Amino acid sequence: MKKIGVIFGMESTFPPALVDKINSMGEPGIHAELASIGEVRMAEPSPYDVIVDRISHDIPFYRGYLKNAALSGTTIINNPFWWSADDKFFNFALGTKLGVAIPKTVLLPHKQHPAGTTDQSMRNLQFPLPWESIFSYVGFPAFLKPFDGGGWRDVYKVDSPEEFFHAYDQTRDLCMTLQRAVKFKEYFRCYVVGQEKVHIMHYDPSAPFHERYVKNPPPVDAKLLQRVERDALILCRALGYDLNTVEFACEGGIPYAIDFMNPAPDADVNSVGQKNFDWIVNAVAELAVRKAKEHAGQPYTYRWSTFLSGQSDESAGATQTSSTNISEPKKKTRG
Q1: Do 123 and 165 fall into the same domain?
Q2: 109: exposed, middle or buried (Cβ count in 10 Å: 0-12, 13-18, 19+)
Q3: Is there a single domain that holds both residue 120 and residue 161?
Q4: pTM of the full structure
Q5: Angle separating helix axes 88-97 and 222-239, nearest 10 degrees
Q6: Which of 264, 174, 173, 245 has its CA nearest to residue 205?
Q7: Which domain holds residue 20?
Q8: Please, are residues 213 and 274 in contact by the beta-carbon 8 Å criterion?
Q9: 178 burial class (0-12, 13-18, 19+ CB within 10 angstroms)?
Q10: What is the DSSP string of 191-247?
Q11: pLDDT (tens digit, 9 = 90+) per residue, 263-303?
Q12: pLDDT in tens, 38-92
């Protein structure tokens, strides 16, 4: 029997619906359940062949558990190693390199020294920073937001240098980015599942949280939707995420990707609506079942997995430097 486990937090609709959907599919030898985690011994396998991770970004214990499970071959949706290393500023830079439209963005240092550091720890940093050059490059209005945050926490819209410095003074020891605001006409939030399926949802980020998913959107140019789908796939394939949301703010017919590090995206029926909820439940259920069928008990290709399989250091290095065609769905996640 191959087991699929779901690790979750305060969610109350998506995890049980996902488990019920998988079990209702009647796949022989496959069973899904809400995961139960007790004693975690190093290097010992997890009882689950596949785990859908919805909470480890908030609970370091779960992230440690998932990495240990991956060591023994459990398939994790999403890759806990890449997720741990990822940040939004890198994603913006990568998207730009891949030809996806990204608003101009700069990385900013912590306003306050991180705990345990002093001004001596920042001796390589120019002081003062070339603020005029930064503001000229990004422009106003702009958004000041954490380089690795989420949930719209600590995000400020600023329309001038004065507003910027007032907001920046409130960012504590967070590392921030400043990104040009997009004067959008259309805004989309896209579920991307298995690096193959894209569900485009019309979205209004200015509306109350429970009303942001637009139920009766106006018609949109088909070519714009095609580019949104293409760019969403490019980003998720390059990042190695099997479950993600990508947000696009469209200005002048150009979809600018402004947020695409959401590996545990909102999937609550009360916020996304029944139609979107049904789509994401079905798509993730099909993905988890496929991963369970493909599961062979061996780790995906991580740096350390080549040593577990007896490959030499030279061949391990060759594995890491081999190129990946991002135009095709990735068969193995990255570490």
Answers
A1: yes
A2: middle
A3: yes
A4: 0.89
A5: 120
A6: 245
A7: 2-84+287-321
A8: no
A9: buried
A10: EEETTTEEEEEEB-TTS-GGG-B-SSPPP--HHHHHHHHHHHHHHHHHHT-SEEEEE
A11: 999 999 999 999 999 999 999 999 999 999 999 887 777 66
A12: 999 999 999 999 999 999 999 999 999 999 999 999 999 999 998 998 999 999 9
Residues 65 and 113 in one domain: no
Helix (H, G, I), strand (E, B) or coil at 327: coil
What the block records as the tokens of 47 is 């009882």
Q: Is residue 254 part of a domain?
A: yes
Give the chain's mean pLDDT.
90
N residues, the chain: 335
Cα→Cα distances 201→78, 274, 291, 322, Å: 22, 12, 26, 36
Token match 């995000």: residue?
155
The pLDDT score that the predictor gives to residue 329 is 46
What tokens appear for 232 in the block? 């969403």
